[in-house]
TrEMBL record:
Designated name of the protein: Peptidase A1 domain-containing protein
Secretion signal, residue range per the UniProt entry: none
Homology family: Belongs to the peptidase A1 family.
SUPFAM superfamilies per record: Acid proteases
Gene3D superfamilies, sorted: Acid Proteases (2.40.70.10)
GO-annotated molecular function: aspartic-type endopeptidase activity
Organism ancestry: Eukaryota, Metazoa, Ecdysozoa, Arthropoda, Hexapoda
Biological process terms in GO annotation: proteolysis
Transmembrane segments: none
């Protein structure tokens, strides 16, 4: 991850496990959209490692300026049947590696 202003972002050229996919993607959200390309890399969450395919954004136009948002990205907790281009959402790719099929988020 690299810090730019107030945002951290992924730089595939700094990853030794990155694999180029290059498929262009466009995703529309309620408040805007994003366009970019698909990439593949190893994701590590705690002691869980999995190779995942994800979108790298190159443009994030929308109602809200992306640089003023208080988050760095969207992690891929969407449903499999709504994924763009048939790409498995990140969470689905690690589910079989969890000790139990339980997931929670703590917001402070």
């Amino acid at each position: 991850m690299t810090l730019s202003g107030t945002h951290r972002y992924y730089k595939h050229n700094k990853s030794s496990t990155y694999k180029e996919n290059g498929t262009n993607v466009q995703i529309n959200y309620a408040t805007g959209s994003m366009s970019g390309f698909l990439s593949e890399d190893v994701l590590k969450l705690g002691n869980i490692c999995s190779t995942v395919t994800f979108a790298e954004a190159t443009s994030v136009p929308g109602v809200i300026d992306a640089f003023s948002l208080k988050f760095d990205g969207i992690f891929g907790l969407g449903l499999e049947d709504t994924s763009v281009g048939g790409v498995m959402p990140v969470f689905y790719s690690i589910m079989d590696k969890l000790p139990q099929p339980i997931f929670s988020v703590y917001l402070n």
